[in-house]
User: Fold Alcohol acetyltransferase from Adineta steineri.
Amino acid sequence: MTHQVISTLPLLGVEKFFCLHGGWLTIAHAAHLSGNYSMLISNASNALQCLLKRHSRMRTRLRVDDNRYFLDNLQYNSEHLSSDLFFSAIEITNESWQELVERRCNQDPYSKNGTVIFPLFHFMLLYNSQQSDDQLFHLVLFQNHCVSDGQSGFILIHEFLTMATTSNALEISEPLNTEILPLLGQLIPRPYGLLYHIIAFIGRYIFIRELRQLTHPRIPVKSIPLNDCQPTRFRVQRYKIRFLFASSSSSLYSKLHPQCRLHGVTLNGPLMGCLLLAIHHCFPLDDNTLLKPFGLGALFNMRSRLPQSPLTPSSVGYFAGTGEVKLK
Assistant:
């Protein structure tokens, strides 16, 4: 099956980081429902074709070329983008829905010798046919982190349920949306005109040099939003970060991947576990048994910081990372 590629976007930042060395990060959103699940199964195909037309990010694939990572935007074709690729109904027998979701998130999504992930979105309906019609069933949306965030997941589930539960679902006609949503880095205004790239290069060089001279632990402890700053031309929230976590063990990083494959887990799971252990070691409580509480995260909506962009409350495919990840 050959897909026609309309355009290609290079992955940068966090989206690229989670794909390095054959890694992946699958996000799962679960809606717990009751009633007659057969309606969702019957109307799933038409609802999915509407979503594929409405959201260009659903028509994408991740492609790996050496150490470069790309997001290919595919031409809409109902034959090549069959609904069966994006939806499945599974009857729950002995396993719980949590176990099924965990196994799917840890399942290797790559094909073609680790060079392609497609599709990047998948709905899964989990049900028990032995239960009555008013019993609980689950609709789970799996997304690759490089194409979606948490808000996108809620948008897609809401729209799928809205269309799949409409009485005239088969009559819904969705126009094809050909607008390609850009990466977040392409939406941020660049100051200094043509000198921006030169100034950014110098600033990055100074930052890396200063970072290497640090003697305190490079671990993220707390990020503090600076709300009392003077207005600037930048539309990105200002943050003060006290510590940074960095890894210089790129060879160990690549060797860890095959071991993760043997144990059926993603590469990022052990890495996050090592990060938590490092934080535990450096910042223990007095009894040395529990992790010392700390705040970490971004408590604001980046979409609202980009008013001149095509991002809307219903956009699917928002990207959170802006920094570049380089492989050595």
Notes: The CA atoms of residues 85 and 119 lie 7 Å apart.
